[in-house]
């Protein structure tokens, strides 16, 4: 555990190195009378209060409005999900305003497709995921448009021929979508593009019109490229999602959970009380899921462009040691439970 603390302090996750390591090692070696929650490094005042044991005088809040407002701002307004929803909402409103300014229904349809592309691509949040999803969506649209052209010019208005040629493409597409999870987004979108183009051209052919798949393929490709470029600009320039910062925050939250479990186990052993196994199992499951999510976030962060060197090796080492700590806490919980049962 001390090695994990030192690695965190090296990456400035606990503020000043010497003070933080000394403070945390002291807390580990001596039993603390109350449950201790780790304070993020950007809260220097709270860190000092934790070290000195002093608290500022509470402001006068007769009706509890200030406390409720702080809770709403912290839990509802200033969360990553709320900020991401605000970003999506503002961007969608801008795109819809652009669509209302065009009188041509085809241009309005292009704007709507671009809006859908932007929302689906930006939903990945992290820039590495956004870049990957934008590339897959563009490739899927191009592949689907090319095959739709081939089907339209070869089958004409014959519905059975169209159905057979779509089935020939759908079987390997769904097989690849099932076996290649990382590229399933492109294969699924290619089928959507084929369906849109072929259904429109088949209806025109049944009505006696000319087959012109370019009339719907080009606007869809343009809309896809526009939505992807806009999502990259928003995710990287306007509202950047700092994967490294989110990774450090997630590590800090996981450390807090592990420290709470440490306190629960040591308190049960010291006070000779039974553990609440439902709570412990829930916390173990939650910590394992958080650690898996942090590993996925680290893999995404490795491919992102960074202005300064990204300590990928150090963060990988910390995640490995956190996994060791999870295993140790699990063994401690089992050992304490067995000893309490026998006694």
Give the strand tally. Answer: 0
Discrete helix count: 13
Helix content: over 70%
Low-confidence stretches: 11-25, 27-57
Return Rg in Å. Answer: 28 Å
Structural class: mainly alpha
The figure for the number of domains is 2
Largest sheet at a glance?
Answer: none
In quaternary terms, these chains amount to: single chain
The rough form would be described as elongated
SS strand fraction:
under 5%
Distance between the termini: 29 Å
Q: Averaging pLDDT over every residue, what do you get?
A: 69
Short description:
This protein has 343 residues and is mainly α.
Task: Record the SSE blueprint.
Blueprint: H1 2-10, H2 17-29, H3 44-52, H4 65-77, H5 80-100, H6 105-122, H7 127-155, H8 159-179, H9 184-206, H10 214-238, H11 243-271, H12 277-302, H13 312-342
Keywords: Membrane, Transmembrane, Transmembrane helix
Pfam families: FUSC_2
Organism: Eutreptiella gymnastica
Structural overview:
This protein has 343 residues and is mainly alpha-helical. It has 2 domains: 130 residues, no CATH class; 159 residues. Helices cover 78% and strands 0% of the residues. It contains 13 helices and no strands. About 13% of the residues have low confidence. It comes from Eutreptiella gymnastica. It is found in: Membrane. InterPro entries: IVT-Associated (IPR052430), Memb_transporter_dom (IPR049453). Pfam families: FUSC_2. Keywords: Membrane, Transmembrane, Transmembrane helix.
């Amino acid at each position: 555990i001390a090695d994990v603390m030192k690695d965190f302090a090296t990456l400035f996750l606990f503020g000043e190195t010497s003070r933080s390591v000394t403070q945390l090692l002291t807390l580990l070696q001596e039993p603390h009378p109350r449950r201790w929650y780790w304070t993020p490094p950007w809260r220097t005042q709270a860190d000092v209060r934790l070290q000195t044991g002093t608290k500022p005088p509470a402001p006068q809040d007769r009706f509890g409005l200030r406390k409720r407002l702080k809770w709403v701002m912290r839990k509802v307004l200033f969360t990553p999900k709320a900020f991401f929803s605000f970003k999506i909402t503002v961007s969608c409103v801008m795109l819809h305003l652009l669509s209302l300014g065009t009188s041509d229904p085809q241009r309005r349809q292009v704007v709507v497709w671009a809006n859908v592309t932007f929302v689906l691509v930006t939903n990945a949040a992290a820039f590495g995921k956004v870049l990957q999803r934008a590339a897959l969506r563009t490739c899927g649209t191009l592949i689907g448009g090319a095959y739709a052209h081939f089907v339209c010019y070869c089958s004409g208005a014959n519905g059975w021929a169209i159905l057979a040629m779509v089935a020939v493409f759908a079987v390997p597409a769904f097989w690849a979508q099932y076996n290649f999870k990382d590229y399933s987004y492109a294969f699924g979108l290619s089928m959507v593009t084929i369906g849109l183009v072929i259904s429109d051209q088949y209806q025109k052919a049944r009505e006696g019109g000319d087959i012109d798949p370019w009339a719907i393929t080009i606007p869809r490709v343009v809309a896809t490229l526009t939505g992807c470029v806009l999502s990259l600009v928003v995710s990287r320039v306007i509202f950047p999602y700092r994967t490294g910062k989110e990774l450090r925050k997630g590590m800090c939250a996981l450390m807090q959970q592990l420290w709470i479990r440490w306190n629960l186990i040591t308190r049960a052993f010291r006070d000779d009380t039974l553990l609440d196994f439902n709570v412990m199992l829930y916390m173990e499951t939650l910590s394992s899921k958080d650690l898996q999510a942090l590993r996925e976030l680290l893999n995404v962060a490795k491919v992102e462009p960074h202005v300064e060197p990204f300590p990928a090796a150090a963060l990988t080492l910390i995640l490995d040691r956190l996994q060791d700590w999870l295993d140790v806490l699990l063994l401690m919980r089992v050992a304490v439970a067995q000893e309490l049962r026998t006694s």
